[in-house]
Amino acid sequence: MNFVRKICTIRSQTPSTNFSRKFRISTKNFESSQATQPQVQDDKFDFEDLKVLERQERRKPQIKPFIKDVFISVFNKELLAYPEILNKEESECLAARVSALEKVFYDKSKTKEERKMALNKTKMYAAPVSLTNNGLAMNHTESLQYLEVIANDVSLGQEISDHWVGLEAVRKGLEAEQYQQIIDDLTSGDRPLKLCIKEKISERITQADFRTYAELDNQGIWRVTGEKVANSDSINGYLLVLCCLEGDRMKAFLIHPDASGVEHNGVFVNFKQAPATPLSEISEEELARTLAISRLHAATLCRTALTRAVQSCVSYIRPRVFSGKPLSELCTIRSIIGDAFMDIYASESTDYFTTGLLDGYECPDAEMEVAMCRNFMVDHGISNMLKLLAIPSLEQEEECKQLLDDIRHLAARGENLGSINMFIALNGVQHAGQNMASEIKQMRNPLYHPLFIFKKVMQNRHQEKDDPKLNLFLAEHLHPSLRPPSEQLEYCVLRMRYACETLLGRHGADVASAFNELNRLAIAGTEILAMTAVLARASRSYCIGLRNAELEMKLAACFVETSKDKVRRLIKEIDDGEYLNLDHFRVQFGRKMLDANERLTEKPIAKSFW
Amino acid sequence: MAARILKTFLRARPSIITIKRFESNEKNVTLYDPFVNKPQKDKKTYLEAIKIFETRDTRRRGHVEFIYAALARMKEFGVHKDLEAYKALVDVLPKGRFIPTNIFQAEFMHYPKQQQCAVDLLEQMEDNGVMPDSEMEQMLLNIFGRRGIPLRKFWRMMYWMPKFKNLSPWLLPEKLPEDTLELAKMAIQRITSVDPEVKLDVWQTEEIEASLDKTWVVSAQSEVQKVLLAEQPSDIALVVKGPFSVYMKDQVVTYFTLIGKTRPEPKDDKDIDDVSDLQKPLGIPGFIGSTKIPSVKCSVHEQDDGTIVAVCATGTSSRDSLLSWIRLLEKYGNPLLSEIPVIFTLSAPSSDIAVQETQPAKQEETTKVNT
């Protein structure tokens, strides 16, 4: 396969454009940078339209999926202008609600009941519901703002996240009449919606992975039978249960409170012929998209947990001294706090960048971005948390335990890192496969296509040397001082196509079973999304003169530098293959451990003769 | 002195030297054998005999012949795998006397008969898998010096023997158990080690009233095998195959397998080069895997010639004991065996194939007569 990469063709580009770009003739760029220029839009008001009662969404026309295209090294430069979703009135309204919530949630003396009351007062239980149904018609950007405050109470944060996602699914899935009947009860806050999706891993080879099923009884009522892992302790509210039907189809069902046949057993909920209402108006894909928003919420919850850990550490460090100097002067401690700060900044940028995609465009395809937001924060959050909690050591035992348990619970809640990484990678590779199908076919049959192979070898000669030609010119869409980081981002983006090509060329249609390599691809993609969001945010902040914007610029440059190295290593490992990156051996060791019933290696002091 | 040695050396014809060397290497057995008259043949008496030889004559005449005789009798006394016995034999050789004092002695095999004797002793140790230790090295050094041939043999042994000692992936104890049941347990454990989940059971055939052979049964079956057995259609017979042999050092254990039907191979006729329509997951958070059960081969027990659903070794390896094994399997977690016919294809008994329709206990007597 490497032979294929030895040839490379020169991409068709206009020489004059390249010339002008090299020599910074700025007037030449006016076309490409037009997208990031402020655009004046004429709002048309139709005063006779009764829908003005509802919230008007200002969505731009549909764009191609952003991160999916990154997998084939196509970059939508328009998005380097960080999305701005809310207008002045909306922002003011949001700020008022958030400050009302902050008063309750930042005050540690408030009880859970008081907090719940505050949520009710601020209409949080009805937030995603339309204005005509006494809701707030909240969009995703606003939901993160609210959740950041609510997440200070971890259990309430999880509850409200499930409730919002479930409400949206119910709105889309139930018939209008049924929806109107239950919406008031649903939004009262007394019995919030809970999600029941995850199941136990099967323990027998004759068990399917997903076993909860629904069937119609004689009276035409759907009955749900199965067992689910419950995310929360109590099940007094409405339950949204995912079931399989005959013929491998999936459908969500709503189980009302106090329904018969529902039993709570520790972290599991058992359903025995429980009556349920089907969400028949929503397709499987739409259901997946709707429920996936819980990943975005999980990222926010994790980030808030990490922020709390940073605050806890800071309050521990400040009054303490070491060798007669303040503890805060220790470089190692400062760097740990700095790392956490950088990751929090990156996660925040990525989350709001993604909500910008979801709220700002028609028919957004941002499932991958949403999944990446969660994985980025969970992955970085756990490692940062461990480092942070090592600072107070065992002095603040209870608080540390709680913080660690919170992030562990949030990280494993619903799904784990590996399965999301697989989702990200398989989506990306599928998109790349669609775009590169003919190329891959030719690459995998080189003797039938000698000319193509020669071309390919020429084309990839820079990629082979790990030095792709930077021809995306991302720096034109960012603040000039971000030129070096933008080139690092460009390098990463350009390497992605090569990584996909290598993977598909190596495994063909069996790529779905190359888990280790797909995992790397997913992590690389996630880092690229974070790099993009961070650069866009820092550039915007600096351009519009936000407070401490210069710090943001430094944060961005530092983050991109670190991430670039990570992406570079990951893609190099993909390119190297399982023997050079030692995957083959690690897998063998793992297999030996799993197969052995005893200790594999002898003790270090063991002898075979005396 | 040196001139005289050189003169002798030059005068001697090489052919004579060679012949003489071989002559001196002949193993002559002494007429007096102290080991013959021992009433009880064990390690203690063996070591006593060596001690008597050592104390009888301070000059230890005939020690080479004695060692050869002792080596030949080791198996008889059951000490052929005992390092202590070999060390006692080496200790018979006098210390210091055979160490070459000049370059010629060192080069031309000083005391060849004695050296050859020590090499033969080490050879026997190697054949019996007895690893020498550093004390033995010291003894050989004291006897033959560091240029002696036995030392070279010893060092070669110490290079290779530790490497081979633990090469087998199935660790066995230094001394195998005498009890056949324990041995059978180890054997079955070894052949079922392919699946770490396999559970070993020891049953007595007395539990089955109709059994003729009263013996033990070591049966191994994992949960996966139970499920695979439960999936066996009742119209397709199970087959008991065997006896197969598994070697534990120098011991052989016979075992039998119960074979069920094989599930089909996974069919894969997709074009591996076509990546235009790759599968992607649905993406519902928390939903992974599939809603269907795979109906194709996927466990290690499913081999090309059948699915191994259980393995056993019995005390007698008789057909009756195997019949009891099937009954015991039925009793302990495989109720489906009462409905499925079992065919015995055993090479050991003269009648080769026997069909056993497994029916309730009453009819067992009659069916056993048929078999």
Automatic annotation (TrEMBL), chain A:
Pfam families: ACAD9-ACADV_C (PF21343). Keywords: FAD, Flavoprotein, Mitochondrion, Oxidoreductase, Transit peptide. The keyword Oxidoreductase applies. Gene3D superfamilies: Acyl-CoA dehydrogenase/oxidase, N-terminal domain (1.10.540.10), Butyryl-CoA Dehydrogenase, subunit A, domain 2 (2.40.110.10), Butyryl-CoA Dehydrogenase, subunit A, domain 3 (1.20.140.10). It comes from the Eukaryota. One of its GO terms (molecular function) is oxidoreductase activity, acting on the CH-CH group of donors. Residues 480-583 form the ACAD9/ACADV-like C-terminal domain. It is found in: Mitochondrion. Its cofactor is FAD. The keyword Mitochondrion applies. One of its GO terms (cellular component) is mitochondrion. This is ACAD9/ACADV-like C-terminal domain-containing protein.
Automatic annotation (TrEMBL), chain B:
It holds the Pfam family ECSIT_C. The keyword Cytoplasm applies. Residues 222-347 form the ECSIT C-terminal domain. Signal peptide: none annotated. GO terms for cellular component: mitochondrion; nucleus. The keyword Cytoplasm applies. Keywords: Cytoplasm, Immunity, Innate immunity, Mitochondrion, Nucleus, Transit peptide. Coiled coil: none annotated. GO terms for biological process: cell surface receptor protein serine/threonine kinase signaling pathway; innate immune response. It is found in: Cytoplasm; Mitochondrion; Nucleus. Belongs to the ECSIT family. This is Evolutionarily conserved signaling intermediate in Toll pathway, mitochondrial.
